[in-house]
């Protein structure tokens, strides 16, 4: 959605200007994986809005992004699992504003990809202790449901 990014950017810079508190932290809660009227390929659908939210986070100083793609339900724009959303938000301030370096406050976010012969190497920002394939219900802890091969890390 081409208009979303400049409007979100204007909202954040407007708040900072009006409240005269410098570049205070702003945390963005990304739209979940709702598919009700989305165009999965992007365009002006929900995935385009999620991309604009990511671009805003990456381009504006002192912002955070809470990813909800794994928490939403395909038929609802408002995930029923509010506990995990709140927990993710609650990690940002201690990790980024109060120096708690042992906290992982961001979910893995795609960073880059590189084709190497018949393989593709994918890099993510913020992987904590690593990635896993898991399943989760409500506020329960994620349980591993399988594995995948990441290949040899150079």
Gap between N and C termini, in Å? 37 Å
The assigned structural class equals alpha+beta
Strand coverage percent? 15-25%
The tally of beta strands, per DSSP, is: 6
Q: How are the strands of the biggest sheet laid out side by side?
A: 1-2
Low-confidence stretches are none
State the shape: globular
Structural overview:
The protein has about 150 residues and is an alpha+beta fold. The chain has a domain at about 5-105. Helices cover about 30% and strands about 20% of the residues. It contains 3 helices and 6 strands. It has helices at about 5-20, 45-60, 80-95; strands at about 25-30, 65, 110-115, 120-125, 135, 145. The strands form 3 sheets. It has a two-stranded parallel ribbon with strand order 1-2. Helix 1 crosses helix 2. The longest helix is centred in the N-terminal third of the chain and has 16 residues, at about 5-20. The N and C termini lie far apart (about 35 Å). The mean pLDDT is about 80.
List keywords for this structure.
6 strands; two-stranded antiparallel ribbon; 154 residues; alpha+beta; two-stranded parallel sheet
How does the SSE layout of this entry go?
Blueprint: H1 4-19, E1 26-29, H2 46-59, E2 63-66, H3 82-97, E3 109-116, E4 119-125, E5 133-135, E6 143-146
Parallel strand pairs: 1-2
Antiparallel strand pairs: 3-4, 5-6
Helix pairs in contact: 1-2
């Amino acid at each position: 959605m081409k208009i979303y990014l400049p409007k979100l950017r204007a909202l954040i810079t407007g708040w900072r200007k009006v409240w005269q508190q410098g570049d205070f932290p702003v945390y963005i809660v990304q739209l979940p994986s709702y598919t009700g009227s989305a165009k999965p390929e992007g365009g002006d659908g929900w995935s385009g809005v999620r991309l604009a939210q990511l671009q805003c986070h990456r381009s504006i100083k002192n912002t955070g992004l809470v990813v909800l793609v794994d928490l939403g339900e395909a038929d609802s724009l408002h995930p029923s699992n509010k506990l995990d959303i709140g927990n993710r938000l609650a990690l940002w301030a201690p990790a980024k504003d109060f120096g708690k370096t042992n906290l992982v406050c961001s979910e893995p976010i795609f960073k880059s990809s590189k084709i190497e012969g018949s393989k593709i190497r994918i890099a993510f920002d913020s992987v904590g202790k690593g990635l896993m394939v898991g399943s989760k219900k409500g506020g329960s802890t994620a349980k591993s449901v399988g594995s995948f091969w990441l290949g040899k890390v150079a």
